[in-house]
Every structure is written in C-alpha cells, then in structure tokens.
Write a structure and sequence with these properties.
77% of the residues lie in helices and 0% in strands. It is mainly alpha-helical.
C-alpha cells in the first residue's frame, strides 16, 4: 500500500488512541468514583494493569501479522470468518451507539455556554446530529483529513486535564492541606469490582490504532508503540486527575456535580476557567466522535480486505473511504438521538448503550483467544481473558447477556455474505 494510503505516523496513531480513550467519560468520572474513596485508586490500578495486559497481546499480534488490515481481520484469519464477522459487527454497532451519546453530551456542554443549543431535548439532539454530519463529511475526504483533525482535538482536549494537574501541583507545593479537608472512605474489597467496572469503561478504545493497521506506516512498529504509549500516558493522566480531584474536594459536593472537572477548575480559578473547561469538554467529545466515525468505515473495509466479507459491503470513494457503512452508522446515530429526544427511542437508546459496554469486552476476549491459538503471549492472554470476565461480571449478568445478543445479531449478515460469495464462486 502506497504512502498516500498510509497517512498515519506514530504521533497521529497515538493521537487516535488518546483521542478515542478521552471522550466525555473522564470529565464526569470523578463524581462517579468519589463515593468509593481509596477503593477508586485500587480500581484504577487494576484497570490499568488489565488494560496493559490486553494491549500487550494486541501489540504482539499486530507485530506478528502486520500485513493484515486490522485487528478484526486478524481474528477472522485465525479463529475463522464467522468469528471475525461477528466481532466486527458487534464493535461496529457499539461505535454508532457511543457516537450518539457522546455527540449529545458535547452539545449539552456547549449548551452551558450558549443555552439556546440545549434548551430542549430535541434541540440537543439536532445539535448532536449536526456534529455527526459535519464529522462524517470530514471523514469522507479521507483518513489523512480525519487524522489531522484528531491531532488537533487531542491537543485541545488535554488542556482542561492539564489545568487540573497544574492546580493539584500547586496544592501539593502549598503543603497539601487541601487533600485532607474531607475524610474519604477507606479501601473496601467488596467495592472493588463495581469501581473497576467504572474505571475500565473510561479506558476503553485503547485498541483503536490496531483497528486501522492498514492506515499506519510501518504498523509492526508504529501501531505497537502508539497503543502502548497512548494507553500508559492516558491511564497515568486519568489516575492523577480523577484521584486528585476526589482527594481535594468534599465527597458529597463532588458526587452531586454533573461536571466535576469544570467544578474543580472553577472553584480554584474562577468562573471563566469553568466556562473554558466546558468548551474544551465539548471539543473532547467531538474528537471522540471523529475517531468513531472513522472506524465506522474502516471496520467493514478491513473485513472486506481480510477476505471475510464481499466488496459490496464497503465500496470506497476516490479517497479510499468506505462510504456506505460510514454513512449508515452516522444515520443510525442520528436516529438514536432524534428518537431519544422525542421519546420514541429512549428505551432503545438505553438498550443499545448497555450493548455497547459489553461489546468491547468480547473483542478483548476474542483477541486473547487468537493469541492462545497461536501460542503467543499465553500468560498475558490468559490474564486478559480473566480480567475481561471480571469486568463483565462487574457490569452485571444482564450486560453480559446483551453482549452475546449483540454478537449473534451479526449471524444473518454472515449467512448473507457467505451465500453471495458462494453464488459468485459458482
């Protein structure tokens, strides 16, 4: 594949990883983890170590099979096309479901500055729809344009988190008295599993670079480095920001805040800083939507180029972008947002969100199974499966069952593509 078809270098690939991981989650997670106290720190450590085990397995497989267009193609090559199609299908659905939620959240944060944007649920949905349509149009211009935009938004979304780090450093240099204003709950083993589930969901999407291997130059080197560097840097930032905020503010006040990062910055730097954080949080959500829209087209395309699906599933334009699956995923996102705002699809949106959560876990389990079948990183693969099942248990039996349902929904698609392939062969 020529240089123009591989526009992502190490830093663009790393920006894709970081930009996909840092969505709207970290900006609300301090409030969600505040009641757990010191158990939250243990959850971050466990989530980071588990994610790193999975990432090492992914990196090893990518380095071993750099000729494959992406992680789904690797799964299909080793486990079989049925597994590849089902895993790719479930992941594709999770992308446009998450896109609907994050685009809505981004509009809500913009509404904090310009209330007219989110005065009603329908206006919020329309604002989110405009974000999705604009980023779909950008991605249709090619992976290079999407990658450049991702680098820009990643830089901007790091600013509010950097502001938190600066404030925390100032508090520490002043003697750290602010960190003892409230007595935080001690570590409780029984609370570790639900806290782990919250922490790990904020880390999801660290595998993004391995999903677009064919877009990265020297993938055996750059995808591996981008995944490990992006994951390690983001988790370190998460732990510092989240636990720092929790330790510096009263638990009750923090738990009642819908925008804890903005609340924290505003408390120490004033209202102007809180407004700036709200704006940059919206940028963070927009950056996530950009990467998700990119993957909506890339996943089916890698399945086609990996030989698991026929070409009509993902026809490309002159920019080598799979227009149909990308546009279809964006359309479904818009339908979820509009349906949820009008009351028609509120229950459907909630249903799909729970499926989204469970879908990513099965991807990690599938990757670990591939590693075990190939005899590579077997200890890490076993740890990855055990850790993924732990997270799945923390999410509840319902989420695990919904994840299986999501995977099985792709079975008719596999049968349809197989029958088309058989007909063409005949």
């Amino acid at each position: 594949m020529g240089e123009d078809k591989r526009p992502f270098g190490i830093w663009t690939a790393a920006a894709l990883v970081v930009g996909s991981m840092i969505g709207a989650g970290i900006f609300v997670l301090p409030g969600q983890l505040a009641p757990f106290g010191w158990t939250g720190l243990a959850a971050w450590i466990a989530a980071g170590l588990g994610a790193m085990a999975i990432a090492l397995v992914i990196a090893d497989l990518t380095a071993a099979m750099p000729e494959e267009p992406g992680l789904i193609a690797i799964c299909g090559r080793v486990i079989g096309p049925l597994a590849g199609v089902l895993l790719g299908w479930s992941y594709w659905i999770s992308l446009w479901c998450a896109t609907a939620v994050v685009a809505t959240a981004a509009t809500s944060y913009l509404g904090a500055l310009w209330p007219v944007l989110s005065a009603t649920p329908l206006r919020t949905a329309l604002g989110g729809s405009i974000i999705v349509m604009a980023l779909t149009a950008l991605n249709l211009r090619g992976a290079r344009a999407a990658g450049q935009f991702q680098v820009l938004t990643t830089g901007l979304k790091l600013l509010p988190l950097a502001a938190v780090v600066v404030i925390l450093a100032g508090l520490a240099l002043a003697g750290g008295g602010q960190f003892s204003v409230d007595r935080h709950p001690p570590f409780a083993l029984g609370q570790l599993t639900p806290a782990l589930t919250l922490a790990f969901f904020a880390i999801l999407s660290f595998e993004t670079a391995s999903m677009v291997t064919e877009r990265v130059r020297d993938p055996a080197r750059n995808v591996v480095r981008a995944t490990l560097i992006g994951l390690a840097a983001t988790v370190a930032l998460y732990v510092t920001v989240c636990m720092g905020i929790i330790m510096a503010l009263p638990t009750e006040a923090l738990g009642s805040s819908s925008a804890p990062v903005a609340y924290f910055v505003e408390r120490f730097w004033g209202s102007w800083a809180g407004s700036a954080v709200a704006l940059l949080t919206a940028v963070s959500g927009i950056g996530y939507v950009n990467s998700a829209v990119l993957l909506q087209g890339e996943l089916p395309l890698t399945a086609v180029r990996g030989g698991m699906m026929p070409g009509w599933i993902a026809p490309t334009n002159r920019h080598d972008v799979a227009v149909a699956p990308m546009a279809l995923g964006s359309l479904f996102s818009i339908m979820l947002m509009i349906g949820g705002a009008t009351g028609i699809g509120a229950k459907l949106l909630d249903f799909m969100l729970r499926l989204t959560t469970a879908a990513a876990i099965w991807i990690y389990i599938g990757v670990a199974i591939v590693a075990l079948m190939l005899g590579r990183r077997q200890i890490m693969a076993a740890v990855s499966i055990g850790f993924s099942l732990w997270v799945l248990y923390g999410a509840g039996l319902e989420a695990g069952g919904l994840g299986i349902v999501l995977i099985l929904l792709g079975f008719p698609l596999y049968l349809a593509t197989r029958s088309v392939n058989s007909a063409k062969a005949s």
